[in-house]
Design a protein that fits this description.
The chain is an alpha/beta fold. It has eleven helices and nine strands. It has two domains: 172 residues, 3-Layer(aba) Sandwich (Rossmann fold), CATH 3.40.50.620; 93 residues, Pantoate-beta-alanine ligase, C-terminal domain (Pantoate--beta-alanine Ligase, Chain: A,domain 2, 2-Layer Sandwich), CATH 3.30.1300.10. The structure holds adenosine monophosphate. The site of adenosine monophosphate has 17 residues, from helix 2 and strand 5.
Length: 279
């Protein structure tokens, strides 16, 4: 496994690959867990080589505190990556990526960016668009893998590659969960014992929503969700929404042939957790 911190070095290596070598790419912010590894394993199956980036991207954080406290476990990350036979790891610094200008470019994702996460994390998707576009230019992957855990991000990246005609196939991968249902996340390691214990309720509620969808209307389902959280003071609901999978617009009526998904963001103490489920 080769590890590069410099853009030039990773580009040189990629350019030196035999013509026709397919490259799978998994961008991450490190603090790797089984969820990340599931993306890498899939990339490994579908490509000749796999590149993983580890970069905690400053421009996608709207809270400085969150950026500073983001878990960093580079030594463990590298041994996990070796264990799944990752070929190339790219670990740039912020200086290497942004030089002296740590700012986002402005993107238009046809409204996808204004829904859900976009309402609560100002500038987040401009930050995501900026870094992913830059990484695609550096790594030039044939396929890139993103988790459905961040479903809105996945849809936004798909939109970005179409609008910018970037020649990469975006692959969405299923959410990987703990045994108790909690969606794996680097942030889970920052939960207190008490919060960790109650956090699986998020997925339990989503499963309940899935059962009720189609029999109850969207407002009644929202009521049901809000009541569940009122009964659990350790978890604070930020938003719950049922939206069309493609447009991410909130549901009005169930239309035939359309796919819907329920999305949720919850604070467990200071830690913000997101999850979603297809309906
Ligand atoms: P992150 O390091 O949090 O930026 O995540 C890197 C990639 O891994 C993103 O495409 C995430 O959606 C994906 N990912 C994170 N957690 C999970 C999970 N539990 N299941 C599937 N994919 C995940």
């Amino acid at each position: 496994m080769l590890v590069f911190a410099k853009i030039k070095s990773v580009q040189q290596k990629i350019k030196s690959l035999k013509k026709g070598t397919s490259i799978g790419f998994v961008p991450t912010m490190g603090a790797l867990h089984e969820g990340h590894l599931s993306l890498i394993k899939q990339a490994k199956k579908e490509n000749d080589i796999v590149v993983v980036s580890i970069f905690v991207n400053p421009t996608q954080f709207n809270k400085q505190e969150d950026l500073i406290n983001y878990p960093k476990t580079i030594d463990v990350d590298l041994s996990l990556l070796k264990s799944v036979f990752c070929d190339i790891v790219f670990t740039p610094t912020a200086q290497e990526i942004y030089r002296n200008n740590i700012t986002s470019k402005s993107f238009n994702f046809d409204g996808l960016e204004h829904q859900m996460e976009g309402k609560f994390r100002d500038g987040h998707f401009d930050g995501v668009g900026t870094i992913v576009k830059r990484l695609f230019e550096i790594v030039t992957p044939h396929k890139a893998y993103f988790g459905e855990k961040d479903f809105q991000q996945l849809q936004i990246i798909k939109k970005m590659v179409v609008k910018n005609q970037i020649p990469v196939k975006i692959i969405g991968c299923e959410i990987f969960r703990e045994k108790d249902g909690l969606a794996m996340s680097s942030r889970n390691s920052r939960l207190t014992k008490e919060h960790r214990k109650v956090a699986p309720l998020i997925y339990k509620i989503l499963q309940k929503v899935k059962t009720e969808f189609g029999t109850k209307n969207a407002l009644d389902i929202l009521d049901l969700v809000e009541n569940e959280f009122k009964n659990q003071p350790l978890l604070e609901l930020e938003y719950f929404e049922i939206a069309n999978e493609d447009t991410l617009q909130p549901i009005k009526n169930i239309e035939p042939k359309q796919k819907y998904r329920a999305f949720i963001a919850v604070f467990a103490g200071k830690i913000r957790l997101i999850d979603n489920i297809s309906l």
